[in-house]
Amino acid sequence: MDAAAAAKDYRLGFGLTFLGVMLITPDALIIRLIDADPWTLVFWRGILISSVFMLFMSVRFGPTAVLSGLRDSGWPGFAASLCNTATAIGFMLALSLTSVANTLVLLAASPLFAALMSWIFLKERVPLATWLAILTGIAGIGVVVSEGIAGHGAGEGSGNLTGDLIALMSSMTLAAMFVVVRRRKDINMVPNMALGGYLAALIALPFAAPFALSADQAYLVVFLCAFLLPLAFGLIIIGPRRLPAAEVSLLMLLETVLGPIWVWLVIGEEPGGNALIGGGIVIGALALHGLWNLRRGNGKRRVT
To answer: Is pTM, for the whole model, over 0.90?
Structure first.
């Protein structure tokens, strides 16, 4: 690929990824506006998002190929599905118990947990800069959850220890999914992600009230789960194929920054002081680590 084609490919990848991330930033705000119980939202998110992806995959590759892919993915694919199930449920429960800022900051730490898990389970070498980012991120997480530990705040605008811990576990299951996908790059995991959504819906069904939504709530659920999020996730899947991983990580931080801002501007849910301080530490660690990776990658390309 010549330089002009490579530059065009890069711009396309950056644009698609940036648009995908921007489309996902109002997710937490729309969830707050729907104002339904978390289990009902887990059910509809699982059903609608997974159905859109399965429909797309079936049209693109054929239903037989999708089912064969699920079967051939074996235990790694099923493990990825279970991780996605746990993350989907944990995300909604965390949002119902703690602030949007706390939830998104703790989820943003998943790349750090993924690096740690890759070192433990895949025996991958972890550079000193990554260790420093992990330790700094853990310190930031401690600041975020300290408000809940101290027993302050139980409302949506403040930290809650139970919600923070659920968000932290969701971050770890998301990281575990990253590790599984990284370990088996030869498998198309998109159908497994859809299976994870269906499993989450099945688990949520006994606790949910799927048909108790008002018309306004139902419109927002369909808009979010059948259009906005599938489009955003699709762009985030396609775009990063043309970008360095470090740049993708930096772009994904936009959700952590903008998500709480939209909620604050529209419904007045202010991030707590600890969320701002701890979030700044976590985001700073991730951003500096991403820039270090980007600089190192550019250096390697210049040498070659």
So the answer is: no
